[in-house]
Design brief:
This protein has 482 residues and is mostly helical. Helix content is 70%, strand content 1%.
Length: 482
């Protein structure tokens, strides 16, 4: 007791230095990664139609251009998570950025359809590093208002989609899809140029036992934020376990202990341990449903607004006089829906919690989609898609906050990466629905399928065993108690 206050844990250090200039710079770099990913995903709404027309592709070949990107993300999400949990967050950031920037730029010069499919597949593998960017940023943020700052981080995705829609509106009618691919690769190239400035996560360093390196990072944070670290020496959270158990006011979700990470293989199988199995499976269902719904709404907007829509009778009547301008306008307008969606998420996520936020926005998304079963005027259709997109990005954002909070540091990016990879299965399936069913004039069936997927997602959220609002992040699986 005489030495009380002479040591402090990482969480206490992060709280002391607060959120300041250092975290803002980390936010900008991680956000640029999310911005780049959003642009490369949104480009699928425009390039497919243009390439189909120029090269005379079938609807199946057009859908494949989207599907291969998500197939690449399915593979990459697991790989980058394992890599960053084993060798560090910076290694994961570097690997994914190199692949995305090179393959993205080379896509511009694709001589034929086959080369374009291969290169977009490689882009997909690189884009799967998104969970590494979000987990890396998360580990610099104090526990207070963590949800709000993660929503702020998610705004980079929204601005990326809006920027890509604006860029396509300007570039596509005047130049070509190749120029759009080239411009869209620039953010990834910028990430490479500034990579040397990105610090390693102090939480990862502590988990690996590199306490002195973690302390140096905290000192840099304190210096740039113009704050001071607590008096004493940084120690592993193991030191405070006994004190935590004796404190009634301190009740973290998961108490922490130093834990060595063995191999990527064991990190993966840890997700299926008795303590994490339920959480892992529920996250998979949630991510698959979220990805299917979000990307489905994005592609549905393109298909219902595109000049090639040919359903002149049936459930939804699409006017023959629609021009290509309508596609860019509708995609741009519905992309703007993500701004109020993120604002809504920021307002409620730290007030009502992750579970209730997810449930509320999933239900609202289903309500907005339901009227699209029947024919709606163009303006009302755009309004309904606007509302659905607003709620879809909200659920996507809160899920991306909730997921890494549920896992300890030793498997955090692996868990988030694998969940993201499973979500990509939804991204791979949704082009078949949005392109195949709508082109076949089966819009009613497509909307009903979206409603069913959303309902399943709601059930998975309700089954999560605990809430993470305002709780400290965990470094250990050993002390896990749902």
């Amino acid at each position: 007791m005489d030495k009380e206050g002479l040591v402090y844990t990482l969480d206490e250090g992060l709280v002391a230095v607060g959120f300041g200039k250092f975290q803002a710079l980390v936010l900008v770099y991680a956000g640029l990664g999310y911005f780049a990913e959003a642009m490369e995903i949104m480009i699928l709404s425009f390039v497919g139609l243009a390439v189909k027309t120029e090269w005379g592709l079938s609807s199946g070949q057009e859908s494949l251009l989207t599907t291969v990107v998500f197939a690449g993300m399915l593979i990459g999400a697991n790989s980058w998570g394992l890599l960053s949990d084993k060798y560090g967050r910076r290694k994961g950031l570097l690997g994914s950025t190199i692949l995305t920037s090179i393959a993205g730029l080379m896509s511009t010069f694709s001589p034929n359809y086959t080369y374009l499919v291969i290169l977009r597949f490689l882009v997909g593998i690189g884009l799967a590093g998104g969970p590494v960017f979000s987990s890396w940023f998360l580990e610099f943020v104090p526990s207070s208002n963590r949800g709000m700052w993660m929503v702020v981080f998610s705004t980079f995705w929204t601005f990326g989609t809006i920027f890509e829609a604006s860029l396509a509106w300007i570039v596509m009618p005047r130049m070509s899809w190749r120029w759009l691919l080239a411009f869209s690769s620039l953010p990834s190239i910028a990430l490479l140029l500034f990579y040397h400035l990105a610090p390693e996560s102090p939480r990862y360093l502590c988990m690996k036992g590199r306490i002195s390196d973690a302390h140096k990072i905290l000192e840099k944070i304190a210096l740039l934020n113009q704050t001071k670290l607590p008096t004493g020496m940084l120690v592993s959270d193991t030191t405070g376990l006994e004190e935590e158990s004796c404190s009634a006011s301190y009740n973290p979700l998961l108490s922490s202990a130093r834990e060595k990470v063995s191999s990527p293989k064991s990190s993966f199988f840890t997700l299926f341990s008795t303590k994490l199995l339920q959480t892992t499976l529920l996250l998979w269902v949630l991510y698959l449903g979220n990805a299917f719904s979000y990307y489905g709404i994005v592609l549905l907007t393109s298909e219902l607004s595109g000049p090639q829509s040919k359903c002149n009778s049936g459930i939804l009547h699409l006017e023959k006089s629609l021009q290509e301008e309508s596609l860019y306008m509708d995609v741009f307008i519905t992309s703007l829906a993500e701004l109020p969606g993120l604002l809504f998420s920021a307002i409620i996520v730290d007030r009502v919690g992750r579970k209730l936020s997810l449930t509320l926005m999933l239900v609202l998304a289903s309500i907005f989609l339901l009227p699209l079963i029947y024919h709606q005027p163009a303006i009302l259709r755009t309004i309904l898609l606007f509302g659905a997109r607003m709620c879809a990005i909200g659920t996507f954002t809160v899920a991306c906050i909730y997921c890494p909070e549920l896992y300890p540091t030793s498997v955090r990016t692996t868990g988030a990466g694998v969940a993201s990879a499973v979500g990509r299965i939804g991204g791979m399936i949704c082009p078949v629905v949005a392109v195949g069913l709508v082109n076949g004039c089966h819009v009613k069936e497509a909307i009903i399928l979206f409603e069913v997927v959303i309902a399943i997602s709601v059930v998975s959220v309700l089954l999560f065993p605990f809430e993470t609002k305002g709780r400290e992040l965990s470094d250990s699986i050993a002390a896990f108690h749902p």
